Amino acid sequence: MFGTSRAGGAVAESDAKTPRERYRAQVREEVKKHAWEQIATAGASALSLNAIAKRMGLSGPALYRYFANRDELITELVRDAYRSLADTFRARARAGADLADLAHALRGWALDDPQRYLLVYGTPVPGYQAPPDTTQIAAEMMAVLLDAAVAVEPPGAEAAESAAATPLDEHLADHRAWAAENPAPASALRRALAFWTRLHGVLSLELAGHFAGMGFDPARLYAAEVDGLTGR
Amino acid sequence: MFGTSRAGGAVAESDAKTPRERYRAQVREEVKKHAWEQIATAGASALSLNAIAKRMGLSGPALYRYFANRDELITELVRDAYRSLADTFRARARAGADLADLAHALRGWALDDPQRYLLVYGTPVPGYQAPPDTTQIAAEMMAVLLDAAVAVEPPGAEAAESAAATPLDEHLADHRAWAAENPAPASALRRALAFWTRLHGVLSLELAGHFAGMGFDPARLYAAEVDGLTGR
């Protein structure tokens, strides 16, 4: 149902085969543009298909031919957001990015569009449940991250010497559903999770304005967390 | 204007002097109760005084005698939320809490009422600006946190030996507005900030459901971050 607009307007248009399909893709992109404006001014939970129809000069029923309901629209926005971050991660990884590069890609992606960041990582929209395929995209990102975490692990002998397993390592070794088939050692699982939580910790507080007036530069704090995670 | 209901219903009632004031405080508490229900079901940005009036069997104008507008109501909820966390921190600190105890208090407070946590630390409500006194309450919390961070610093000679100043330390030494008059060393400033961002990182992802299906226990991840922050 959403297959024609996976990565935003440009791809959606070139994927569309007939003029009719192309027109449909264009209208859907326009609806999404209005939706992002609504989210910025009124919040995701106040998203209203009728309000968007009004702004576009369409009747409610006409708009519902493009998105069946609010949740379908939110799903499309969430999917675009996740997909753009996953694509960023994958492209960087293919270009040889290490864990620090991924960290800076995450920060760039977040600061580039705080609304997009907050739709995915901020307060959940009440009554909305993301469909399973967004979980799949999130899993793809964690897979890229985990590979990068494995790459900074010290080699075998050194690792055994330097790091006794922590209680968290022991827990993660037994609870590794999210690592799928990756045979990463527990210390790499731990590093990937710490990467995810520490960097989102800085970003979410920064984007919600909690560092305003504190006087320091959150970019420095972020960089220090990255250094700690990559052993620099 | 808000002085009579600083810490919720009980205090508000006992602070109120006349039956009329007591009644006013009771109605305001009831409005807030309905507001939290609205936030849970529709989101903070969809908060509507008229909808609350309807549920309470009041006219809109009658309700506006208790809260002048939506932002005044949100401010009261934000203030209650911040105040409850600040009171928790202060009470624990007075009872001799160390940094790890404060971490567990933060987690308890967050899990106890995720909506409350997300109103303060989740996606900002579009168009809403918290008043300066909430910043002041946040500063009080950071002060408690900073004292606890200073207390786990290694003593002077050991510290000088073990830790060369990091680039972040140098930055924080010059940008310490948030530490007010506290002469804490930069390493303690860094520890307090890492405490704040790392623990909020775990909590915000956990409460927004991002660990669902990953298979591990977020409490273990949180505990490991606390151990790292307290040098255990």
TrEMBL record, chains A, B:
PROSITE patterns: HTH_TETR_2. Residues 48-67 bind DNA. It comes from the Bacteria. Pfam families: TetR_C_33 (PF13305), TetR_N (PF00440). Residues 1-20 are annotated as: Disordered. Residues 25-85 form the HTH tetR-type domain. Transmembrane segments: none annotated. Keywords: DNA-binding, Transcription, Transcription regulation. InterPro entries: Homeodomain-like_sf, HTH-type_TetR-like_transc_reg, HTH_TetR, MT1864/Rv1816-like_C, Tet_transcr_reg_TetR-rel_C_sf. This is TetR/AcrR family transcriptional regulator. It comes from Kitasatospora aburaviensis.
